[in-house]
Amino acid sequence: MARITAGLTTSHVPAIGVAIDQGKEQSDYWAPVFAGYEWTKKWIGEERPDVIILVYNDHASAFSLEMIPTFAIGCADQYPIADEGFGPRPVPTVVGHPGLACHLAQSLILDEFDMTVINKMDVDHGLTVPLSLVYGKPAAWPVRVIPLAVNVVQYPPPTGERCYKLGQAIRRAVESYEEDLNVQVWGTGGMSHQLQGPRAGLINQEFDNEFLDNMIDNTAQLRRISHLEYLRESGSEGIELVMWLIMRGAMGENVRELHRFYHVPASNTAVGHLVVEPT
What we know:
The chain is an alpha/beta fold. It has 10 helices and 10 strands.
């Protein structure tokens, strides 16, 4: 039986990908950011997951404003790297797990979640930066990935409550898959940041750190945060944090914190990172 063994959250700041690709990890500006992932790099080498269900948001690479699914699951064999205007990142093609992905799609749809099934999709920094932060610069990614894209671009995005319940449904789906697989769920995006308007550059460290605290033992509080509160407290792009709740819902009621990291700033956002395991 497949099993979910751990969960991870991380920001997916595009400038982090640029720093990695240009070899600037040890520069004065970026070194403190990458230091926060050294523990995770060692841990992932010991855990060796077979599959990662990676929750992220597309940045107009696979989807445009003409068509935006609320939840989309990738069921392809592989996912090319998107050209986001400066050529594709120099990272390996992402290899999928169609068997588990199709099982997830069926299970989630029959569990009354309206998933959009994607059989061909390019993936952008929202998915590749988290992989780079944890796995570095391998010739090939040492894990299969199931992309799960969430709309946090066009209003209305899903609520935190809906995302948490989707995570619970993902756990049920994984546990009903017969192949023996070590599965992790990653939630990406955030933390507080705003890219435009009079509040461009907003970072709310108090909100961010309270969110990290509540991810461990007070998910009820997080599930009640409204869209307006996200906008007011964490900026227009802070809504990406609902994707962390998909990971948290997939962990079950109780988790143990293995690693936590928070840093300001990385480009124009706060970087947050958690590693947890279900108990």
